Amino acid sequence: MSQQTPPTSPALRHSLVIPAYNEEACLPRLLDSVMAARGRYAGGSDAVEVVVADNASTDATAEVARIHGCRVVRVEKRNIGAARNGGARAARGEVLAFVDADSRIHPETFNAIDRALSAGRAVGGATGVRMERMSPGIAVTYLLFLPLVWATGMDTGVVFCLKRDFETVGGYDDDRLFAEDVRFLMKLTRLGRTRGKRLTRLSGAKAVASTRKFDRHGDWHYFRLVSRVAWCSLFAPRSLERFAREYWYNPGR
Q1: Which of 79, 87, 177, 205 could form a disulfide with 244 if both were Cys (CB 3.0 to 4.6 A apart)?
Q2: Domains of the chain
């Protein structure tokens, strides 16, 4: 009797890394959106893996992720950069993508990333976002950031690059409590310049960004936040870490 050769599974193309701390409430809606995007991916849903970097959660984050078929990596250091790096180390895909656990992704996300990278002009980039709700304060905050996005090519949402390039630039800085995403994109920008490439902002695949910080702190609070960070950086650097942990790492954030 001849032995049948088992069917080969498609090579992993994308690894979506989700850093998560106590995200049992938000994670299901993100993972539902990821399932829809995997279903629309031209390379097949099995070519996309989802890695949840459980950043020392004390709730059912890891269980929720496993129920949804995700790989779970435990990262004990409470730091967003460390969580992203931990997920990236476990990732097996050619392309790394990162998204916050309280977001939702567009159904065309993985197709749009492939188109951008296959064109050969992008070292990486981001999808950009639209807010899950809008108000005058949120709209003004959003608009004030647009000139910086246009000038630098840096954006938020689903951030992506080739895994080998992630490793070349050293990933995220896991000693920074905030703005680690900006620093990472700056490193990618410098790498791209050595190759005649740049960051790209995808069109037609914006993620949906959570407004929970606006819900908690007020729709105009970003202006106070920027002023506080600037003041602490210049005059009270020792208090900056305490403030950053309260704003970005507080369990009730």
Answers
A1: 177
A2: 14-212 (3.90.550.10)
